[in-house]
Fold this protein.
Amino acid sequence: MITDPTLRTLARGQEMLAIPGPSITPERVLQAMNVPMSNIYAGEVADISWEMVERLPAVVRTTGRAFMMISNGHGAWQMALNNTFSRGDKILVADSPFAATWSSMAEQSGIEVVTLVGDGVNPVDPRAIADRLAQDTAHEIQAVLTVYTDTATSARADLPAIRAAIDSANHPALFMVDGVASLGCEQYEMDAWGIDLTVGASQKGIMVPPGMAFVWANERAFERADTADLNTMYFDWRPRANPDAVYHLYAGTPPVQHLFGLREALTMLLDEEGLEAAWARHQVHADAVRAAVNAWATDGGLSLNVTDPRFQSNAVTTINAGTISSDHLRKVCEDDAGLVLGIGLPRTNNNQFRIGHMGYLNPPMILGTLATIEAALHTIGAPIGGSGIQAAAQVVTASMKTFKTQNREGSDLSTIASSI
Ligand SMILES: *Cc1c(COP(=O)(O)O)cnc(C)c1O
């Protein structure tokens, strides 16, 4: 037996990636992507491309158009701006850490940004949006931009309330939403919620490696490309909407492997599980994470960053580390147990860590993550209130019991045992 602890680590085994993107890519998606480079003019790559154009609108529940590109989320942000605005246009941004980056991009592109600042944790109050729009009687503001789930704070904006705010001011501004961290994780109804444009990327709830990004636009947003002077050849969505050939969909070479992965991921998300079931699964996992953190919480110790249940994201949870060092905790989890947690982001509070619970996850992964954090908390001598493992397991139990009554009627284990 090895007694020298410096000679061993428990981290061998599948690394558990619990960061808020890139999320865990399902083995099936990776396998689907493992194809040789192929014909890009016709055949499967072309077929999948046309199929994705048809299928992607269902991810955000729109009858509008979907555009795909080879980029990360930043590219989709840029496509959204370039097709809809001209230099000197004014936009209203509901501030949050990720919204601030989108808004810097807009400023650098020559757009005038009016920022509504919130309390630094929760989403900006929709009433502030209504008030600012009501002041804009000349309708100079061209659009309202917001992030749905902000991945830094883990606060989720109330999008129907923002739509209602825009309507209450009787304002024609476009409503543009960054759904990168939320799509596939949280309920999202682009058309029903009156959203004109949505930005997304492949590597979070959509379960495909980073490298593809998406913009969805309704007709109102789409038409603005005709007059938007920020438009550039690469991002222009008009040729992508009226393609003569497959390469027009991408303004160049298609992302061959990603397309195979995306087709597999959409089969899993839309056909096999269904969006509602995926949202419900994320809800249970997020509830389990929050129950664990609340059980660990002490005065001045660990705490949830977002405490108002109306604004808690089901895709990511940001945790204030209190008296312990979040970096130390993450290092113990990573080095000795193979668990990778998300870092705190500078705009919010440096002494935070984040648990990503987006995409391809089930209870062993979530409960394993929480149990490992609890072990690490004990290891570093963190003051904790009670057992987060127990609290999280109770949340999962409640869900499993409902599942059993709904789906397993008649398959009582005692009946099975007596029949063996
Ligand atoms: C991840 C993320 C992005 C995009 O990030 P990239 O690194 O450019 O892919 C944008 N917005 C939100 C809310 C995100 O979580």
Notes: Residues 21, 72-74, 98, 147, 150-151, 178, 180-181, 201 surround pyridoxal-5'-phosphate (CB under 6 Å). The chain has two domains: 27-271, 275-402. The radius of gyration is 23 Å.
